[in-house]
Each structure stands twice: as structure tokens, then as C-alpha cells.
Amino acid sequence: xxxxxxxxxxxxxxxxxxxxxxxxxxxxxxxxxxxxxxxxxxxxxxxxxxxxxxxxxxxxxxxxxxxxxxxxxxxxxxxxxxxxxxxxxxxxxxxxxxxxxxxxxxxxxxxxxxxxxxxxxxxxxxxxxxxxxxxxxxxxxxxxxxxxxxxxxxxxxxxxxxxxxxxxxxxxxxxxxxxxxxxxxxxxxxxxxxxxxxxxxxxxxxxxxxxxxxxxxxxxxxxxxxxxxxxxxxxxxxxxxxxxxxxxxxxxxxxxxxxxxxxxxxxxxxxxxxxxxxxxxxxxxxxxxxxxxxxxxxxxxxxxxxxxxxxxxxxxxxxxxxxxxxxxxxxxxxxxxxxxxxxxxxxxxxxxxxxxxxxxxxxxxxxxxxxxxxxxxxxxxxxxxxxxxxxxxxxxxxxxxxxxxxxxxxxxxxxxxxxxxxxxxxxxxxxxxxxxxxxxxxxxxxxxxxxxxxxxxxxxxxxxxxxxxxxxxxxxxxxxxxxxxxxxxxxxxxxxxxxxxxxxxxxxxx
Length: 510
Known about the structure:
Layout: H1 74-93, H2 99-106, H3 110-138, H4 140-157, H5 167-182, H6 188-195, H7 201-226, H8 233-261, H9 272-279, H10 287-296, H11 298-328, H12 333-361, H13 364-385, H14 391-405, H15 408-420, H16 425-454, H17 456-474, H18 482-488, H19 491-499, H20 501-504
């Protein structure tokens, strides 16, 4: 019987006892993801026949999977992840938030500085599948170490670019950070599923995404303060070096903390859905077949498109915000950063509220649709008020838009996990992020050209049109909440569920 008691073990660490005195067992759950690549452990064989297509518990998950228990370490893990995700996100936007200053320092075009942001989007697309394979083969700890190490390396490489002719060096540092992002961006839903209980996963995912958004917020706020718009190149290089040294030190500290604190997994699965997901893994699982199954799932395909439209619009707005504000409010670099900060802080609040609401209500489709519609309304209002020559109005309308636009991001991750369970969370989240990067590049380049040639109003209307399309497509997504059904599965039905797993893996389509 699956034990849902938060303290299911006796003091000596033995499994909880049934009334008859025998250890509580769910033999069919003693299985794991074959993709982990680890050798089988010496776990005792099940007394029941194992369903074909399942593998026995590997050394990665040697414990009795019938024990459902959350770990105290889970909060440290998600907060540490949130912090190094924050550091990486800061490095993404640190150039775009003072676009005009870096243009002057390096003597390059606005488009060249935009590419320092867009390289984050470009590198993600070809590296998704290799990193997803590494995640399944080597686990969360290896991915965390690699992501934080690359983030640290990129930060220090940028310190070699403090002369106007060294723009290629800062490009190299940014490309390294963009590779680090591939090891970071798709992890929130995976960390939430592996470490958190059924009634915490959405909140945990929101906290993990929170760090990325906080990094963007700090990236809007701090660079305009640390790097003033001055003419003296030597003084400007000094101010830029201060920013680079600070972020290099923070990245190094976080890398050390990841080495010390970040663990692969908790001792016991935190939810029945997570326990079942180990058992439902097939030994011949491949990433190509997983991707094929995901793209046969019409609901997931619609979510991939709608998520990409929303997140891509956010990436474009973030990259081009400094340019848009300076056009209407010349000399207001600091306030442009503060407007960006307002967008992201409001979005973080929206993300946390959305996560808590989802954990309580489980209304994934309804919440996602409402937030998307409000994003469209917020974007329209922001577009119409940007040129009113009243900055305080822009702060309010931008913050309202950000509350829904960036608050949507964790909703998309969690909705994807629900629609695709028990497929890998890393793969479903990764495909959402690929869509976001593709649309982000398209929207950033297109909106940038529209702004340069026709002004900010047509550029923002361009985004409004595509966000409206996203809201319409969201209405057609069916709320097929597979993870929720797994969490409600009665223990006595678990064996029959697993016995059908070999045939049910293909049913991950619509």
C-alpha cells in the first residue's frame, strides 16, 4: 500500500508496518527510469510478476518507492537553483537594459547589442536535445553543476572585454552564458516534480521561475545605476568593470554552493505521480520516440505554440524596452530600467500567486486562459499609453501587463507536465522553451525593424496581434490532466496501471 503519511518510517528507518506486521509494499512500484543509464541495484525481487517493459529499481532510486515522503532539503535545492538562474538571467539582459551605452562604448550598432540577448535564444534551440539526454543519463546534480559552472566561466570571460576593440570577447562570454542557460531554463518543472509533493509542485515551479524573473528585474535596475551614460571611455570602462566583477563574484559563490548543497534526489519520492513515473519508464525509451509522442499530443502542440507566442513577446519587449522608452523619453535610461523592473517584479508576483492558486484549485486550463486574455488586454493598454509623455502612466500600464505576461510562464510549464505525464519534464519544458526562443528571435528582429522604420506604436501592435492569436489557440486546449489522475490513483489500482504501461506509453498522444 502506498504510504502517504508524512512520517512513514519507524525510528530505526524500517518501512511502516501493515496491521498484520508485514512491511507495507507496492512491489510493482520498485522500478525506475531506464534512461538514467545506471546499473540495477540489488533490491529484493518482487513477490508479484513484474509487467513487461518495466525495469527494476536502479541505484539512482534504491529506496522503497512505496514510501511517499517529502524532504526538508527541497526548499534549499529550489532556492539555490532559483539563485543561479537569477544570476544567469541578469547576464542575459545586462546589455539590453543599457543598449545605448554599450553601443557607444564598443562602437557597434543597436542590432549587434540586440544579438547579445538573442544569442541566448539561438543557442538553446540546437542544444535542447543533447542537454535533455544528459539530464536523463546523469541527473539533476550534474546538470546543476554544469549550468552554474558555465555561468561562472562566462561572467569571468567578460572581464577581458573592457576595451572598445574587445567586443568579440564580450560576445564569447555571453555565448558561454547562453549555453549555461540551456542547463537552467527547462529545469523548474523537473525540480518541482522530483523534490516536491503533489500539493506543492506548482508553487515550487513558480519559485524556481521566480529566480529567473528576479534576475531579469535586477538586470533592468542595476546596470543603469552602475554604468552611467558618460563620454569618458576610461571612466566608462571602470564602471562596466565594477558590474562585471560583481556578477563574477556572485556566480562563483553560487557555483561553490551548488557543489556543497545540491543533491540529485530525495530519499523517497515526494508524490505518487513521481513514484509511478519511475515505474512507467521503458528500458528502450529514446528521445526521438519521446518527441514523436509529444508532437502527437494535440493539446501539447497547441500549448507549445501559445507558450512560444507569449514568452517570445516578453523576450522581445525586454530586449527592446530601453530603445522604446528612450525614443519617447530621451535621457531616461534609469527610468527605462525601472520600468523593466516594474514589469518583472509584477510578473514575479503574478507567478507566485498563479502557482499557489494552481496547487489549491488544479484549474490549469481556466487559469491559463484567463491570464492569457489579461496579457492581451495589458499589452494593448501599454501600447496605447506609451507615448502619453507621462512616465507614471507607463509604470502602471507596464506593471499590469507584466503581472500577467510573466506570471504566465510557470503556468505553461506546469500545464505542459500535466498534459504530457509521464514523459520527462525536462523534454516537455525544453520544447516549450525552444518555441519561446524561436518566437523570441522572430519577434525581436521583426519588432526592432518595425520600430526603426515605423515607430514604437506599429511595433507593439505587431505583438498585440500575435498575443491575441495565442489567446484564441489557448481556448482550444483540452484540460487532459494526466498527472492529477495519477496522484488520485488508488493504491490497489497501481499494479494494474503499471501492468498496462508498455501499451500505454504510446497513449501519450491526444
